[in-house]
From TrEMBL:
Annotated Pfam families: Hydrolase (PF00702)
Top-rank taxon: Bacteria
Protein name in UniProt: HAD family phosphatase
Annotated organism of origin: Mogibacterium kristiansenii
Gene3D superfamilies: HAD superfamily/HAD-like, Putative phosphatase, domain 2
Amino acid sequence: MIKTVIFDIGRVLIGFEWKDYVHRLFGNPEVEARVTDATFGSGIWNEMDRGIWSEEEVLARFIARAPEREKEIRVAFDRVGCCTERKEYAIPWIEDLKARRYRVLFLSNYSEHVRKRSTHTLDFLPYLDGGVFSYQVHRIKPEPEIYRILLEKYELKAEECVFVDDNGKNIQAARELGFRTVHFENYEQAREALEKLLREDGEADE
């Protein structure tokens, strides 16, 4: 029986289109490519989500990848909250599920740096029943440990949870741990897929 719905945040409950963001900032293909390679397109970004390195360490590593673009990298890093987009459907979606007595949580790869700069798009957080940011536990999806941390923290059984994420690797990791999953492509598709799972679960219990 499904009791809990767990959402990823970036590109699910908020927009996070970093390519568009970098383009808006610089409007120069060469600059955009160098800044992207040094920041969003590097493995350093994932480690920032892990929350072990300080903001200063992360920034220094970004700059080291493209020192000639230090000024632009600093701008992109400082204004990164502008990369996130509020989604009007987030709060109503959460409220609808809770009204039907589902527990609603989040599990997200998210850095403290980005969180501090994107509070305007995270206004749905108080409506949730809790969750785990990667930077808080120093683990990132698709590492199995972060899923287990969430299960243990909220005393959940994986088979009683649906996990909604836009990343196929994260979805696969959740399935291997026993979660039911919805691969998010867009709101309409994901909501329909989630409702199908919830209906089938209800029918199975009848």
